[in-house]
Amino acid sequence: MGSGFFGLTVAERVASQLDKRVLVLDRRDHIGGNAYSAPEPETGIEVHVYGAHLFHTSNERVWNYVNQFTEFTNYQHRVFSIYQDKTYSLPINLATICQYFGKSFSPEEARALVAEQAGEIDTAEAANLEEKAISLIGRPLYEAFIRGYTKKQWQTDPTELPAAVIARLPVRYTFDNRYFNDTWEGLPVDGYTAWLSRMADHPNIEVRLNTDYFDVRDELPADVPTVFTGPIDKYFGYEAGELGWRTLDFETEVLPIGDFQGTSVMNYADEDVPFTRIHEFRHFHPERKYPEDKTVVVREYSRFAESGDEPYYPINTPEDRAKLERYRELATKEAAEKRVLFGGRLGTYKYLDMHMAIGSALSMFDNRIRPFFDQGESLDGRLDD
Ligand code: FAD
Ligand code: UDP
After folding, report:
1. Pick from 32, 352, 350, 69: which is nearest to 24 by CA?
2. pTM, two decimal places
3. Across-strand partners of 266?
4. CB 3 within 8 A of CB 200
5. Using one digit for the tens of pLDDT, what is the confidence trace for 158-170?
6. How large is the ipTM?
7. CA-to-CA distance for 268 and 145, rounded, in angstroms?
8. Mutation probe of ligand 2 site: the residue of 55, 153, 250 with most atoms within 8 A of C-beta
C-alpha cells in the first residue's frame, strides 16, 4: 500500500527475492510517492513535484541497492541564503562569518568570536530552539540566518519550538560549504521517475494507481500480508486523535531568462519575505541540455496541514508522541491479527530521508517478511526504528 520508496523497495524485494506476486496500490495517478518528478511541459526541465529531493547516504548497503536501478550524477548540494538583500554562504561556515561581520577571520579568530557571542547561554541549559541556537552560534548569526527562516518554516516562535529541531545545526570553521556530509551523494542520471519505474518493473509486480486503499481494503484477501505506508492515524480511524503535520505550498513559474539565481536553492532568511526558499531546477542538472532562454523557479511556502492537505513534515509535539504510542500498540496487534505491517514516513510518523526509507524497508524485508514466507514465522508488527 503506497508506491513511495518504502513500498517500492518492499515490492521489489518480495518480487525478485521471494518470487511472490505483489500488488502495489496508490491513490495518486503516478508512482514514486513524494520523490516523483516530471519534466515541466514548456521547458522539459525536470521538476521534483513534491519539493526538491537530494539523494545522499553513508549506508553502503543502501548505496549498492539503489545503484541497481540508477546511476547518479556527481551533483553536490550547496545552499545560499539572502538576508537583508545580501547573499551568504550556508551552512554557517567561515565564509558566512567573514561575509556577515565584514572582515577576514582565521579559523581560530572566528571560533573565538562565535564562542564569545554564544557564551551568553549554556547549551546544556537551553530550553528551546532559540536558546539552543544562540548557545551554539551566538545571537547575531542566529538573528540573521535562523530566527526569521525558522519562524516562517514552523509558523511558531523559536522560543516555543523544541531545542532538538536545531540540534544538528552545523557551524564549520573552514570554507567547506557542502550541505551534506555523507559518503555518497548525487542525483539520478535520468531522473527520479525513471529510477522509481525500474524498481517497479518486474513481472511479479502489478501497480494500480488512482486507487485509495480505504475504498478497496474490504475486497483484499484477508490472509495476504499488507505493508501499509499511508498515514497510521487514518488507518485506525483517528481513534487516538489526528497526528500533526506541516505541509508546503509550491508556486511554479517559467521565466523567459536562462538563469534566475545562479544556483539550485536560495533560502530567504528575512521574516517579511513570505516564502522560505526558491528552487531553480535547471541547476540540479548542469550536465543536461536545457533551453538557454527559459528557466523554472519554484517558491516554497510552509504552513500547518489541514485535513485534505498533503502531510509533509511530522510536527511531533508531546501530544503527537502520546498519540503515536497508542497507534504503535494498535499496530502491533494489527500485525499479529491481520498481517498488516506499517512502514515509511506516513506509516511511522517519522521524517525519513530517502536513504532511510529504503534502508528501513530493506530491514523490514530481512527481519519480518522473508522469515514469514521462508520459515512461517509470525509478523510481530513492531514499528520499524
Ligand atoms: P511517500 O513517498 O510519502 O509514499 C507514500 C505513498 O502512499 C504515496 O505515494 C501516497 O500517495 C500513498 N498513499 C497514502 N495514502 C494512501 C491511500 N489511502 N491509498 C493509497 N495510497 C496511499 N529525502 C531525501 O533523502 N532528500 C531530500 O532532499 C528530501 N527532500 C524532501 C523534501 C520534501 C518537501 C519532503 C516532504 C520530503 C523530502 N525527502 C527527502 C523525504 C522523502 O520524500 C521520503 O524519504 C520518501 O518520500 C519516503 O518514502 P515513503 O514511501 O515512506 O513515503
Ligand atoms: N534553518 C534555518 N535557516 C536556514 C536553513 C535551515 O533556520 O537557512 C533551520 C530551520 O529551523 C529548519 C532546520 O534548520 O527547520 C532544518 O533545515 P533543513 O534545510 O535541513 O530542512 P529541510 O530541507 O528538511 O526543510
Report:
1. 32
2. 0.95
3. 80, 278
4. yes
5. 998 888 888 767 7
6. 0.97
7. 9
8. 153
